[in-house]
Every structure is written in structure tokens, then in C-alpha cells.
Amino acid sequence: MNRSPLQWVPTGYFAMAMGYMMLTSVTSIMFKNLGMDNGRAAQYSSMLILAYTIKPLFAPVVEMYRTKKFFVLLTQLLLGLGFGAVALVMGMPGSMALMMPLFWIMSFIGATMDIASDGVYVTSLSSRNQSLYCGVQSLSWNIGPVVASGVLVYLSGRLHTDYGMDWLGAWRIVFVAVAIMLLVITAWHWRVMPDGARAADTPENLGQAASILRDAFKTFFEKRGVWTMVAFALLYRVSIGLLEKIGPFFMVDPVEKGGLGMSNELLGIVYGTYGLLAVLAGSLIGGWYVAKRGLKPVLFTLCCVLNIPIATFLLMAIYQPSSLWVIGLGVVVEKFSFGFGAVGFMIYLMQQLAPGKYTTTHYAFGTGLMGLCGMLTGMVSGHLQQSMGYVSYFWLVMVATVPSFIVTWYAPFHHEEARTAEEPGQLQRKAG
Fold first, then answer.
1. I want to staple 427 with a disulfide (CB 3.0 to 4.6 A). Which of 43, 216, 346, 399 is the partner?
2. Which CATH number fits domain 1-202: 3.90.1750.10, 3.40.50.700, 3.10.310.30, 1.20.1250.20?
3. Residue range 208-432, CATH number
């Protein structure tokens, strides 16, 4: 029986986003609530990005065995059980030593789920239907961060403040809720998700997979101007990487420590909901702007829009406003600008870095470099902020925008520009 993509595309991409955001973003807030300092909280959560960064290396192996649906169901089941296991070990003696290996394993399971879910989407739908449903796909993915960073962070705060739970108890309930959601989605996909077809270029064995990967690396570094494009992929978002973990910490740290003294509830509303909706709005408008003008004449403008509004965090650190409206406006401005500017980055990777014999793989290399930047900057950001204080740290973030301007100015355009066929929202999902 043919199932409508509306029965499995929204839940599939929502599950992908939930897994990614819970592991790489929400965990940093949990670590901080449990008494971890900013340096370690940012470092530990950023380490979990590694699996998502290197997933192109093991994607061919995943494609070789069973059906794509099998891997979706298996990884969603294991991820749900993993979040349940985290809830069980929290509060045990030496619980952090148990949680971190669990999170590490779960990050590779989540990355594998991404590979399999994308595979079902690409091989089960015609090109026409892929375009038709990509708006649903991107919207569903963007609901995931709203639920994870908004609703669930808000819930943890309410449980702690209004119901008198300690932070361990509050976060235990949050992880149980995530586990239940993923297990319910797994059961639903078992009924409605198609198997997914075998891709034409799927390797037949491990030797062939290794040979294809070697050739993909070789041809990638033979591209004209490749090192400039690599620098662009690695450095375009370096300031965003330095801000990503520290922004929420700044919101919840007490005023006497240089923060804004917000509760988890307010963080969930302002940063996790309004901010993420602003990202989506910015990506849609940014995508329309690039489609109308073309990428080459506007890329530097997009870089300016991406980086300059980071100054709102510097101003908030200097003046420490107490008005929720002022704080919310600052977050919305910065997040909208991020969404607007990040679209150009993804289009550049598709149109200039990726074209060639292994377009999909080379595009994945580009997004992997982006993930590497986010992981490395996230790992050092907390330690730097602790040693410098918020005002000096946000000055550093502003200085870190300079490499982005340089690599954007010199970014080469060796391929004829084409208007992207993807929805702007889908680009933002890949950028996230």
C-alpha cells in the first residue's frame, strides 16, 4: 500500500532534529543546571557534534545492508532507549562518568538515523515529490529545535521552580518524555514508512566503499581554488560557533556573574522559541533574496548580515538589561540575521564547492567542515568565557568575525550560478 509522504516525512525529520538538538545543544543547559562550569558544559556538549561531522565517512557502509527503513527504526528505537537509560543513571554515584559514554554512543546512533532518514526520503520520492515536500521536511525539522530548546527547557524550569524538584529530577522527567516520543515515533514509522530503494551508486562491499571514498577525497582536493573554498567552509561561521553555546549561558547566569539572570522557563521562551522562529523567518527571507539577486553579488552582504548583529550580545553584556522585551528583541535580531546570512553559505557549498563527480559526497565534506568549526569553537568557548568574562568574551567574538569577512571576500566562483531549486527553509535545516 502506498502511504502519503505526509504520514512519515514530518515525524521522520522531527525525530532527526530532536535527537540532534537534545544531544548537542540542550545537554549544555542540563550540564550547567547540574553545577558544571561554563567551560566543561560547552566542551562536553560540543564533543557530541563529532559523529554528525564525520557521518559522510560511514554513510556508504550504512547504505550497504538491509533496508533504509530498518536502520531508521533501529536507530530511533536505540535512541529512545538511550534517553531512557540516561534518565535511569542520573543521580547515581559517578553518574557523569556513565552519562557521557551514553551520550557519545547516542550521537553516532543519531548521525546514523540522519543518514537512513535522508536515504528513505531521497530514494522513496520522485524528484518532483522531493521538491514538493521539501517545505514540509524543513518545517518539520525546525519544529524539533523549538520543542527541544524551547518547550523542554521551559518544562525543566517549571518542574524545578513550581514543583520543587531538584534539577536531577526535572531533567530526568525531560529525558523520559523524549524517550517516549521517540519510541512512539518508531512504532508509527514501523507502520507507515516505506522501505526506501537502493541508490544506484551504493557500494557492493567494504572494499568498494573504501575505494569510492578515496577517489572522492582525491577529486575533492583537485578542484580549482579548493583551499580557498575549504577556508570559506571552515571559517564563514566561526563567530557563530563561539556564540552558540555561550549565548544561552549568558542568559541564565546571574547578574553578579555578568549574565542576565533568566530562568530556564524564560530561556525556553525567548531563546529556544522566539529565537528559533526568527532563524526560520530569516532563512526564508534570505533564500528569497538570494534567489532574486543571485549569490555572487550578495555573498559579502550576507556575511555582514550574519556577523554584525552579534554586537547585540556585546551591548546586552555591557548594559545587562532587565526588560524581557529588550532581551527578546536582541535575541530575535541576532537569530534572524543568522538565518538570513547562513542561507548564502549553504548555497555556495552546493553551487561552487560540491559540483563534480561526487557532488553529494563533496557537499557532505563542506558541511562536515562547518560541523568541525562548530565543534572546535564550542569546545573552547566556555573556557575562554570563564577566563575573560562576558563583556571581553563578546568583544573577542566580534574580532572573530574578521576571518569570515576575509574568506567571503576571496571566495572563488568557478561555476556558473544557478538558482537553487531548494526551499530556503530546507537550506536552513542543513545549516543548523
1. 346
2. 1.20.1250.20
3. 1.20.1250.20
